[in-house]
Every structure is written in C-alpha cells, then in structure tokens.
Write a structure and sequence with these properties.
With about 110 residues, this protein is mainly alpha-helical. The termini are far apart. Helices cover about 60% and strands about 10% of the residues. The chain has a single domain, classed as Arc Repressor Mutant, subunit A. The chain contains 5 helices and 2 strands; from the N terminus they run ααααββα.
C-alpha cells in the first residue's frame, strides 16, 4: 500500500526545490563537486553566470549551510569555497537530474 505524503513533507520538498530552483544554484553545486575552490574556478565551470550573481549565490548557499567559505591569510588574501557534507548529499540527487537534462532537454531550452 502506498503511503500518502503528509503536509510537513510537502513543505520540506517545496523548500528544497526553492533552494535548488534559484537560477545557477545546481550548476554552482555541481562545480563544487568537480573540485572548484576559488571564485575564478567556479566562474570557469559555470559559463554564463555574472560575477555579481555568482557572488550572491555563493553567499546564499553559505547561508543555507551548503557552502563553506574559508579566508586564507596570504598576500593577497585567498578565499576558498567548499561543499559542506549536506551539499555532498545533495550532489547525489543533482547528478541524475543533470544527466536527465542532458538526455531530454535541448541545449537552448530556457
């Protein structure tokens, strides 16, 4: 017998989709999973994103506990971003979604 999805689970799913649904969030997380650590590495792995929007999304993901920002006191100062364990779990969900989109959505589908 199939169990009904309760209201609390529905709200959690909606919140999760709100996070992932923000433009560029999925590709930024996938870039982090590919080893991006510095801002310029994220920018290179997510073509088409502007610097201000990448900055905004990294801050938002940090606020959600999905990205960890580390300042390295060198000259010049280096800032590194890394996925948190929670984001690593989310990558498991994003990879099949990315694969599905490659197979079923045209490149110019917006």
């Amino acid at each position: 017998m199939t169990k009904a999805v309760d209201e609390e689970n529905c709200h959690r799913i909606i919140r999760a989709l709100d996070i992932l649904g923000a433009r560029w969030t999925g590709p930024i997380l996938l870039a982090g999973a590919q080893g991006a650590r510095r801002f310029k590495e994220y920018r290179a792995l997510v073509p088409g994103i502007s610097d201000p929007l990448l900055t905004l999304r990294l801050k938002q993901l940090q606020g959600r506990g999905l990205i960890e920002r580390t300042v390295i006191p060198t000259t010049p100062v280096q800032i590194r971003y890394a996925l948190t364990p929670g984001a690593e779990e989310l990558i498991v969900v994003l990879r099949p979604l990315a694969r599905w989109s490659e197979l079923h959505l045209p490149a110019d589908d917006a």
